[in-house]
Write a structure and sequence with these properties.
This protein is 32% helix and 24% strand. With 395 residues, it is of the alpha+beta class. It folds into three domains: 209 residues, 2-Layer Sandwich (Uridine Diphospho-n-acetylenolpyruvylglucosamine Reductase, domain 3); 90 residues, Alpha-Beta Plaits; 83 residues, Alpha-Beta Plaits (2-Layer Sandwich). The strands form five sheets. The chain has a five-stranded antiparallel beta sheet. Strands 12-13-11-14 form a four-stranded antiparallel beta sheet, sandwiched between helices. It has a four-stranded antiparallel beta sheet with strand order 16-17-15-18, with helices on one face. A hairpin with a 4-residue loop joins strand 16 and strand 17. Helix 11 packs antiparallel against helix 12. This is 2-hydroxy-acid oxidase. InterPro entries: FAD-bd_PCMH, FAD-bd_PCMH-like_sf, FAD-bd_PCMH_sub2, FAD-linked_Oxase-like_C, Oxid_FAD_bind_N. Pfam families: FAD_binding_4.
Length: 395
């Protein structure tokens, strides 16, 4: 098994072109922090982008930043923080959940469409991604998008690469729009609500004019003895005071909330972002389930009726993180039955290799979608070099 670590896009293109000539299957990696996500590797060699590094463009006035794919995410975030700016979508850090080490890389944020609690307000990583450079399966360097948001006709390669998990090409550079850091961040915490009432309260708050940037519910036993329902607001301090007061009045039937500010507030949302309440025990399987918020509690209840599970909600109830026993199918039958009944989809984020080889990790595709997916893969990677089978068997 070979290992390649090119230092430039040109070097990477030459390596892929040679691999294309001999049909050498390649595992694409950045910092390796998400290596355990997806179906087990079916590759022969590793191609890492971690040496293709460095910020290539930063224009604070235009609120845009470009960096090569192997650039440490921490380096980009530090640069943005110096000018009071940030990535809008709050990318999850998988290292605690996956027990991995290494540096998160800028390109992997795009490749995996990493997003966190602020997605309900600012969108996903793909919504801020405006430009990419990548090497396709023929060893050709491709540029798509640029430095401004614009309408796209034809195949939108920028959005297509976001969330493709390295199956379509090796990203070498990505460009994101950024936003200003807000003056103040505060969280209302309601205690003691059950899942259904918590989601009801979150829906009422999200439907109000008071602009939440985080909406999560942690059932009892996840870090504290009582359930906590979290609502985050950001902005100028006077605006925050007004909005907290109005939200408290709007939601008074759910109890009297406490207000959490400063580092305690930041720590709460880091925990939600990084799935900290479910990290232990390490042997548990972890599922990421998306559904309509109003169906979240019923979906979880149907799973919990057939197997032991622990869970919490983000995105107002629309994102469920669920931990269960990794034995057998790790709950795949029960969870996918629940998503079929309630609507939604599920991804098995953490489980032993044997389980991930036997159980579809990503939501199974209907036949028409499977044909489209296979066709796109064939167009970008005709020899099937990149991360073969990581998302779907045979793709």
């Amino acid at each position: 098994m070979g290992s390649y670590a090119p230092a430039s896009e040109q070097e990477a293109a030459a390596i892929v072109a040679e691999a294309f000539g001999r049909s050498e299957r390649l595992r694409l990696v950045g910092g390796g922090t998400k290596a355990g996500i997806g179906r087990p590797a079916q590759d022969e060699s590793t191609l890492s982008a971690h040496r293709i590094s460095g910020v290539t463009l930063y224009e604070p006035a235009e609120m845009v930043v470009s960096a090569r794919a192997g650039t440490p995410l921490a380096e980009v975030e530090a640069l943005l923080a110096e000018r009071g700016q940030m990535l809008p979508f709050e990318p999850i850090d998988h290292r605690g959940l996956m027990g991995s080490t290494g540096e998160r890389t800028f390109g992997a944020v795009a490749a995996c469409n990493n997003s966190g609690p602020r997605r309900i307000n600012a969108g996903a990583a793909r919504d801020s991604l405006i430009g990419v450079r990548f090497i396709n399966g023929r060893g050709q360097a491709i540029k798509s998008g640029g430095r401004v948001m614009k309408n796209v006709t034809g195949l939108d390669l920028v959005k297509l690469m976001a969330g493709s998990w390295g199956t379509l090409g090796l990203l070498t550079e990505v460009t994101f729009k950024v936003l200003p850091v807000q003056e103040r961040v505060s969280t209302l915490v309601f205690r003691g609500l059950d899942d259904a009432r918590a989601i009801e309260a979150l829906s009422a708050a999200l439907g109000s004019p008071f602009e939440l940037t985080g909406a999560a519910h942690l059932p009892a036993g996840l870090g504290e003895g009582t359930a906590r329902t979290l609502m985050r607001v950001e902005g100028f301090s006077k605006s925050i005071d007004y909005r907290l007061g109005e939200l408290s009045r709007l939601l008074k039937r759910y109890g009297q909330p406490e207000i959490v500010d400063g580092e305690a507030c930041a720590a709460l949302w880091r925990g939600v972002r990084d799935v900290a309440p479910l990290t232990e025990p390490r042997e548990a399987a972890i599922w990421r389930i998306s559904t309509a918020p109003v169906r979240g509690a019923a979906l979880v209840a149907s799973v919990a009726a057939s197997r032991e599970a622990r869970w919490f909600y983000d995105w107002g109830g629309g994102l469920i993180w669920l931990a269960t026993d990794a034995g057998g199918d790790a709950g795949a039958e029960a969870i996918r039955a629940a998503t079929r009944a309630q609507g939604g989809h599920a991804t098995l984020v953490r489980a032993p290799d044997a389980v991930r080889a036997a159980v579809p990790v990503f939501e199974p595709l209907a036949e028409p979608l499977n044909r489209i997916t296979a066709g796109i893969k064939a167009a970008q990677d005709p020899a099937g070099l990149f991360n073969p089978g990581r998302m779907y068997a045979g793709v």
